[in-house]
Amino acid sequence: MFYLPIIPRLQRMYASTQTAGDMTWHYENKTTNGVLRHPCDGEAWKHFDRVYPDFSIEARNVRLGLCSNGFNPYVQASNIPYSCWPIIVTPYNLPLEICKSKPYMFLTCLIPRPFNPKVGIDVFLEPLIDDLKKLWTGVLTYDISRKQNFMMRAMLMWTINDFPAYGMLSGWGTHGKLACPHYMEHTKAFRLYHGGGNSWFDSHRRFLPNGHVFRRNKNAFKKGEVDMDVPPTKLTPIEVWNRVKDYPKVTETGVQRIDGYGEWHNWTK
Predict the structure, then answer these.
(1) Model confidence pTM above 0.85
(2) Residues 51-62, mean pLDDT to the nearest whole number
(3) Phi-psi region of 253 (alpha: psi -120 to 50; beta: other; left: phi over 0)
């Protein structure tokens, strides 16, 4: 595995006259007209500002996004099993036209392996997590635009992945019946009789209005079935915390993790 530290690169953005001023763009260009032009206009950003006012009061603190996916670098020899996983971190303080451009998509980890790292990806992410912990506390940084030192803090706002990579980074099994992390045991997934795989076909009629014509349609969805069920209730933050606070379970024999079928499995220490 290769790790390229993130802290010096963030500090360098404040050491450059070309980028130091742009790092407070998100704070100086807020809108109140309800138009979403940049992630700083979104509810997730505003919610974080309300929860952590000590962080948001300093406009130079950095908001980060992380994305990852695997690919086979041997495109000309697809029969060679190989999986290369880059971990890319992006600062979202910048203006929209440059915040997703190539120079500001920082490659932090590169995980080349014969197969994808699966649940072991958290081991490879340890150096990055250590740096993120330091950034949350703050690192001394020189801001050339204001000619002063300040304690630069940073936090990871979100991750952007497809569903399989989301399962690897979060530890939630996304391949079984309980693949949906929101509705879990309330899922309407079923196992295909011939193929044996799980299907989520016809899981969404319950979200339609009660009188919607699709609810009574017996031909376009599951054959011969109507769906008059009400949607499952959304979990409160406390209910979500109660579900995840003991996950994974640590025992004397090792660590237990839950798979997509809702079963606990031992992972030897």
Answers:
(1) no
(2) 93
(3) alpha
